[in-house]
Structures are given as C-alpha cells and as structure tokens.
Amino acid sequence: MIEVEGLSKIYGRGVAAVDDLSFTVAQGKVTGFLGPNGSGKTTTMRMILGLERCTAGTALVDGLPYWQHRQPMSVLGALLDARGAHPARTLREHYRALAAVGDISSRQVEQVLDMVGLEDVAGRRIGDFSLGMAQRLGLGAALLGNPGTVMLDEPVNGLDPDGVLWMRTLLRRLADQGRAVLVSSHLMSEVALTADHLIVIAGGRLLADESTPRFLQRAGSRGVLVRSPQVDQLRALLRTLYTELSEAQRAQSRVKAADGGGLIVHGITPSLLAQAALRSGVELHELTPLHETMEDVFMRMTAHAASAAPRE
Ligand SMILES: Nc1ncnc2c1ncn2[C@@H]1O[C@H](COP(=O)(O)OP(=O)(O)OP(=O)(O)O)[C@@H](O)[C@H]1O
C-alpha cells in the first residue's frame, strides 16, 4: 500500500514539478496514474522510492518510507527505467545478482523468468534485448522479491499489441493476488481497460482520484447522430424544433454534418427527435446518442488545467 500526503517537489527556479499531492494506492486494485507528459508522474514515483528528496510531504509504503524497510524488494517492486540493467550481463545473471542483494532464492528467479515469458532468452545478453523485452525484464526484476506493492512507470512503452495485452493481463493478475498496483501512463486508453481506480494529475497537481466507473460518469454528451434518406426535410424539422427551445437551450444547439452522411445534432434529446420525425413523416435510419470517451474526458480535464495560471 502506498500513502502519499502533501507531496511536493520544487526544482531550481521555483518550478513545482509536484504540487501538494495526496493519494492512496490500495491493495487488490490496479490504480492508473495518469497525466500528460511532464505532469510529474515520474518525479512522484521517484520520491516514493526515495530516489528524489521531496520538498514537502510524505510518501509511505506499508506505513514506512521505502528506504526504511529491511527487505525493500519484498515490499515494493518498481519499474522506472527499463534500460537500467547492465548490457553485458545475461538476463539470468542480472536477476541472480539482484536476487543476491535481496536474499531471494534462485527458484524464485526461475519462477519470475517464467512469469514474464523470458525463460527462452534468459541466457542472452541484455544489451541485445528489444525495448519490449527490456520492459518485460524490468517488470520481472520488480517482481523478484514477490512484493505486496508494484509500481510501474509507462510499462507498455515499446510493447507491440500482443505485449500490451499481455501486460494488461499480468497487471490484473497481480491485483487479483491482492497486491497494490500503481501504473503510470500519459494515455487514458492504455489504462482505462485495466485500472479499477484512477489518479489524474496535470502540472503536478491532483485533478481526480476516483474509481474508473465514477470517472466514466464525467463523460458528457457529444450530440445525437441522425441518419435519414430525407436530409432536407430533417434539417427543416430541426430548424422548427430549435425555435421551440428556450433561449438558453438554443445557445447549446447546433447541427453538424457527420462523417459518412447524416447529421450530429446538439441540444435536442433522441426521444424528442424521434417523436418529431414520426409526427412529420421523416424517415430515420439511425438515431444514436454519442458520448465522450474516457480519453475525451481526460483531454478536456488536463487541457483545462494547462490553461490555468502557472505556479511559482
Ligand atoms: N531533475 C530535474 N530538474 C529540473 N526539472 C525537472 C527534473 N526532473 C523533472 N523535471 C521537470 O519536472 C516536471 C515533471 O517531470 P516528470 O518527468 O516527473 O513528468 P512525467 O509526468 O513523468 O512526464 P513523462 O510522461 O514525460 O515522463 C517536468 O516539467 C520536468 O521538466
């Protein structure tokens, strides 16, 4: 479990990379840590690991600063930089060296090689690994101590679609085993399918800390897609309907041409449109309410934060 309280990092010239962040990463869940590039995700993770001194606040793992644990590898496993391993070593040598430091058995090394699907290349030099293999290697290194908490910085970078699916499945499994899993990304679409909980930051500040279904409730309407073979009659009908709206409702309403024919109508509900079409004898072939995706909500949220006043 990770508990972050009032965490801040101010670099030279007073720039706050992380600004008064508080959140908890709970056991048994995948928590997505989302923010645009440069929003402070890596700096936060480095402070949790004690690799970066915090300007203010605390970051605890299972109730203690990470570096105070006697067996840190069995408390938290982290993947921050997949290219951090010595290129001349073989994968098995690398894991055995890490295992020796953490008092970890060679049986566990073999189990992890199997878990990350790298058994067949365990005798190969790490320097010859592709980025995708290096990501798996780094994830395996994080799992060597069988930790209760796993923290991964952009783990799907460099993975092909099969690798991404594999990573998602593994993260789910780790959480289902009762571990706390924190996984960062700058793309909502990457974590939306796996994360139970989302922490969203921009400019080092917390924007959202809520369950994924709750975040999804923020998705607004993107209008109604209407297709009809009688487009001119449909447009005339919409003009009539708009005159019946209040002035405030009219300010929200507009009609746009949709890709592949049809219209996207804002400001009129699907049921009102269907009733009016039926009354006027306008034939409809499609009437689909459109909603923002999670990516849309994320972009809207972070763009809004970016346009806010910069911090000193
Ligand atoms: N050592 C440093 N000295 C000065 N500024 C830094 C340092 N490390 C990071 N920063 C700045 O702090 C801010 C947050 O960076 P950070 O790498 O934590 O963001 P991030 O969300 O992980 O981004 P990315 O997704 O691009 O990795 C950025 O503006 C970055 O330029």
TrEMBL record:
<keyword id="KW-0547">Nucleotide-binding</keyword>
<keyword id="KW-0813">Transport</keyword>
<comment type="similarity">
    <text>Belongs to the ABC transporter superfamily.</text>
</comment>
<protein>
    <submittedName>
        <fullName>ABC-2 type transport system ATP-binding protein</fullName>
    </submittedName>
</protein>
<keyword id="KW-0067">ATP-binding</keyword>
<dbReference type="GO" id="GO:0016887">
    <property type="term" value="F:ATP hydrolysis activity"/>
</dbReference>
<dbReference type="GO" id="GO:0005524">
    <property type="term" value="F:ATP binding"/>
</dbReference>
<dbReference type="Pfam" id="PF00005">
    <property type="entry name" value="ABC_tran"/>
</dbReference>
<dbReference type="InterPro" id="IPR003593">
    <property type="entry name" value="AAA+_ATPase"/>
</dbReference>
<feature type="domain" description="ABC transporter">
    <location>
        <begin position="2"/>
        <end position="228"/>
    </location>
</feature>
<dbReference type="InterPro" id="IPR017871">
    <property type="entry name" value="ABC_transporter-like_CS"/>
</dbReference>
<dbReference type="InterPro" id="IPR003439">
    <property type="entry name" value="ABC_transporter-like_ATP-bd"/>
</dbReference>
<dbReference type="InterPro" id="IPR027417">
    <property type="entry name" value="P-loop_NTPase"/>
</dbReference>
